[in-house]
Amino acid sequence: MTLAPLASARRLAQAAALAAGLAASAGAMAQAALALPGTLQTPYYRYDIDEDQLGGAPDQSSLNQPLDASSRMFIKNARFHKAGPDGRINTSDDERLRLFGINLSFAANFPAPEDAAGIARRLKRQGFNAVRLHHMDTSPGTATDPPVSLLTPGPYPSFNDAAVTRLRGFIEALAKEGIYVNLNLRVGYQFRPDVDKVPAFDASQQARPIASPIVVYYPRMVELQARFASEAIARLGLANNPALAMVEINNESGLLAAWQRREWRDAVPEQYSPELLRLWKAWLAQRYGSVEQACAAWRTCEKADEVILLTPEDAEAAESGLQVLRDKLDSQWLRLSGQRVGGRDASSDPASGKALRTRDFLLFLADTDRAYYKQIRQVIHQAAGFPVPVTGTQMGYGGILNLVSHEEMDYTDEHFYVDHPHFINGSSDVRDWRIWNVSLTGKHMDLLTGMALRRDVRKPLVVSEFNQPLPSLPAAELVPITAAFAALQDWDGLFFFDYADGSRGPAVPGSFALRGDWGKVALIGQAARLFRSGWIPANQEALVLPMPAGTQAALAASRRPDALEAHLAARHGVVEAMGWSRRIALNPSASEDTPVARPAAPAQPLRSPGGEVTYDPTQGVLGIQAPQVLGLFGRPPASPDANGLGARFTGNDPAPHASILLTAADNKPLADSQQLLLSLGSGTVGTQPGSLPPRPKQMVKHPSGSDSWTLEPDPQFMQRPSGSHNGSGQPWLTLNRADVSWPTPWTAAQVYPLDGQGKRMAALPASRVSIGGGRLTVSVQATSQETSPWYEIVPGPAQAAAGRP
């Protein structure tokens, strides 16, 4: 017998054993059996969700209706609306609309025709009514099954006909299931001098970063982007199509963003800087009458030949003068108008001429971004045939002066991530990364609530990317908490990032994908209904804060990352924690001396006016109490609120992070409902390749020595610090043995764990269900046969026979 056949036979036997083990029933549990150094000892269980057959209580399909003329989306009173039954906008039957969406990336945008309808139905079942078509331009190629880009490698924009056909059919399938599309135009395409007939880049860096903003100001690049926008809308059948909800011009990029993020070198390659300098001088001539007059105002130059493009380092040299202006602004000693910030009267101002020049340059960058967005928006509206809502880029990519650059845009957009993986060698190396396994409730709530301080009161606000990706164990709380806060703030759209990079193959938990991350999926549908159905009312009191261009410029010049927060606190007494009780927004049209009533400092725990949401940052606990929903997130208190959801973990040491929702599956108030859905979100990991019996991958300390975590290496890459962030094998969910309780008028109840299709399994025995003191208590995940992330609760036979709620 030779070694090769023996090794082959052994591999086949191991593969067969692995396949058999991973086919275990949904309730199969596994305690972490491998005691690796620094292992996070967490119990898991195996569970699979069948997205194609999902029904029963977790199915949210009833939220959607096919899109038609009545579905056309538009903006009215700074909110998204749809046209209503008469099919005409701005009439009496217009209906308010919120979007709960998800991103599709790369090949996921181009499913095979036989898969398109099924994927659309999957998304509908989970409560989504919009998809964001993302990274369609990033990887031009000739592949047709599947395509990974809307483009081929030909001169930009050369369209991949197979991709166009597939996406056009997919959009039709999505519309039939009541799902709108958010069209992203420029995300990752990198112009190529030899192919696209644009100037060469610096010899030291031929390939530009995907966020390089040369596309904003170089005329040929702008012209080609306008052509791409027009042709993409036409080819995809989106002209006069109510399925087109919104368009984003340029993802995470802009001149302001390059300055703000200190990525300025990428913004001005040597052969491109003359064009930006030309625009800078033209801007100065328009503002001051001539470049020489600008030099006189700044006291830094005498003639046009001495005007240069500034850099962030130049701004840092003027820091002392800028600080004077910021201090005066925040101390209410100085009112800055847009004209004054232009520096026309530098001699009477204690700030240096360099400081005023810096702020001029920032306003120039904002106006240059603005001209680009305005031009592309006009092309979009002409191609679409109706005023589809358009935005430029995200507020976090450009900062407060995006209020200027986005003056003509229709809505504002945000992104936020909690515990985003740090890829030590860049995102291309997926085997050396780390996370901190922190929670939104425990440490990073400001990432969510801080977005309330950047909303433009005149426009809808959309969060088009948010996630706390695998394998962060508290991550399941992110979507329902975001939905609850967005409801309080009356925001207009949320888009989780993302569904998957591809549409076929098994659901493997990894990277940023929702598909396979069943610990998050367990709560997605209820979060969708919470946000879309208005279960949590918006805060009635509004804090609208003046933010004119002058104030924006003074803040934008600061190197402080919290300049806006510091200003709002000093000038108006407003902090992000007030977002739990008030709707917060900025008004760029108001002057700085517009009176604003100084609000009282928020008391802890933070609470919405009606008590629907309560957050205690000192304890790291958030509760939801509304007629149709109860929620508990973070570390459960020992004694729950009498009217709230309570949980006592019984089998874990230390106790896991709670991510629990109870909702009325029949959409009635919980007190009147005849069908409840109790869901337990959790962390999710994949299977360690080659493990026999199959076991979950373990969370281990990252070898960097910091307090960070990663996944154990894959067997074939044991020399690397991490297992692949792209994931492997079938999903395992963290086990949450607990006694969960809530108020009830019932006297008897039956509780059914649900399988991965939403079907009832055997009811829990009476020993796991009790009612006393007006509360129903259910012991969940006690045995392998009873373990599920979903439990359907209905009245017990005696109560049902009596006809009582």
TrEMBL record:
Domain of life of the source: Bacteria
This protein's UniProt keywords: Signal
Signal peptide (UniProt feature, chain positions): 1-30
Region (Disordered): 590-613, 681-708
Gene3D superfamilies to which the protein is assigned, alphabetical: Glycosidases
Name of the protein: Capsular polysaccharide biosynthesis protein
Lineage of producing organism: Bacteria, Pseudomonadati, Pseudomonadota, Betaproteobacteria, Burkholderiales
